[in-house]
Amino acid sequence: MREPMNVAVLLSAGHHPVSGRACPVPVEMQAIGLGNALGAEMTGLHAGPASETIADALGHGLARLVHLKIGEADDPLASLIAALGTEKSALVLAGRVGQGGEDSGLLPYALARALGLPVVPDASALREGPEPSTLLVEQALPRGARRRLMVRLPALVTVHPAAPAPLPFAYAARRRGVVEERAGIASPRGERAIEERAYRPRPKLIAKSAAGASAAERLKAATEAASGGGRVLVDPPPEEAAREILAHLRDIGVLRG
Amino acid sequence: MSRLRRDPRSERSRHRVEGAARPRFDLAAAPSGLHGRARRDPRAEFRLAQVPGTARLRLDRTQRVAALDLAPAARAPEPQAGPRLVAIPEPAFLVAAVPDAPGGRLTPHDRQLLGAARLLADAGGGAVLVLAGAPADELARAGADRVLALPVTGYDPEARAMALQAVLAGLDIRHVLLPESPEGGDLARRLAALTGEPLFAGAESLTARAVTRPAAGRRTEQRMVPPRLLTLAADAAAAHAGTLHEALEVAFAFPPLPPGAILSADDVPADPSRVPLAEADFVVSAGNGITDFASFHDLVEALHATPGASRVVCDAGLMPRAAQVGASGTVLEARCYFALGIAGAPQHLQGVARCEHVVAVNTDLHAAMIERAGLAVVADAQKVMPALLSLLAEKAADAETHDAGAGESEAEAVDA
């Protein structure tokens, strides 16, 4: 029987996409579920100003949460590096893009760089590896494909929304959980020449010929092939049609073998 | 509103019968001069609108056939000028684009990335450097001036990031663009962490002077002059079109790359029967021309595809509603769509609009799906399906005997 692993989950100050109110980030709750499935000792880590909703993560199956108190304008990176240095976690789990900041998704990578950890992105399932201090990660790829990776621990793994659904919120678990509050490290963000304004949704690209045309023409542009007409076989024998179709499918690379 | 004034005398003189001693006028006959509108002949129009080569009557009222018949034969077809080749021998700087190019093919997002790189390069006399391996003609059409493949095989993103860092340090690169896709986004963040440069992630609009991205839960928009390292969201920039570029290979000496922390990586292909339709890569779809659904399901399984259906078939309860493709069903993102017995209502074609390749089998030559398809077969889908199934079974049997033969020869080699 191996000793339970120490796993740290990075939690961010999420916002509901519709109402804009503070709420936990779903993919981070899924990360808690993945850690629990490993039978690990879980610790939540959050660096930010005081917030009521951070502790809601305790209701989704987390037993302990460390809240590093820093100011509104501080960068959480320095506090997290210091905290993870003392926690000695074998595995650090994070969402793909943390919320509450710039939403650039850069923090896990900067953190891993500072701690010397490898990053494995987009995990949808985790298992213990065949050897001690290895981990089997199932990575979610586009179009439903998966990749099985074996990594040496310690490592930082980001979680994909395709991971199993998180445990539902339980108020008793939320009351039972322990929140440890510590002072973080104040490190003001560097100034960047970025202008900020209210968000304006940009129109998605549509076919050029259709822009400003009538509704019928826009529909035509939306439904027609981008690249001209194709090859037409009129009334071939079924065998020849089948051969041509299979050859074409093999040409475009969708048919295996 | 003004009409031409009538001239009754000249109108009457046009009806004059020539050659008589005293003036005679035949008012019933058509005027001799070609004045006014020619008289329509609806029967001739009907004849011309008939599409030849079909068993049942079909009229092409757009008069394309008629126009072709009436067009003067002497007019030679205009020579098709190919796209103009643009060479940039001495670029002022380089704009690097790192497309995902899964399997050596550019995705639509990759083409948009190259279009954005082209825009940044053309603003200052620069050249686009593509850091991926793909066919040269495909890259030339997408707008690549220089090509350099990264020397990384298999899944090792950290090594790719280090190779990119080496290229950034060794060449005069003003901007590096990556797609905001799972793989490209990951690589961009690794590169940002390696080099310590700020990353402008998920740009939604891009010009040579300004680039914007959403931040803080899409409540604020950040805007700045294009920085060195940025990732581009999908459908944010137009793909390059019009000119052809050189796509010249660039020589670069990469430093030796250390092995990463990933001990092994195996790709597990998606199980097509479990993949949701919206994510599926290859969809085979049944329409009103299909009656034998048992062999349709066999065909779907033999092709390793995800089953889809048209609205008619789902309404009839022959396929589940979740399989419906179209405006009221699922809008596909598939690479290939194989339509069996589907004519292609506009609502159905909307669901197929983002598919890269379409193959159609339909009895109607003039169906919209036939026009949309890259390969269209005008035949009965019910007859093509068994032919496809038997051909696939033959191929599978061949592959099995081949594998068995290879296994035996290996065993012999071991024995020897």
Automatic annotation (TrEMBL), chain B:
Span of the signal peptide: none
Region Disordered, residue ranges: 1-41
GO molecular function, one term: electron transfer activity
Pfam family, one: ETF
Skewed-composition ranges (Basic and acidic residues): 1-25
Gene Ontology annotations of biological process type: fatty acid beta-oxidation using acyl-CoA dehydrogenase
InterPro entries xrefs: DHS-like_NAD/FAD-binding_dom, ETF_a/b_N, ETF_a/FixB, ETF_asu_C, Rossmann-like_a/b/a_fold
Keywords for this protein: Electron transport, Transport
Domain Electron transfer flavoprotein alpha/beta-subunit N-terminal stretches: 95-272
PANTHER family tied to this protein: ELECTRON TRANSFER FLAVOPROTEIN ALPHA, ELECTRON TRANSFER FLAVOPROTEIN SUBUNIT ALPHA, MITOCHONDRIAL
Family label: Belongs to the ETF alpha-subunit/FixB family.
Identification of the protein by name: Electron transfer flavoprotein subunit alpha/FixB family protein
Organism listed in the record: Ancylobacter mangrovi
Lineage: Bacteria, Pseudomonadati, Pseudomonadota, Alphaproteobacteria, Hyphomicrobiales
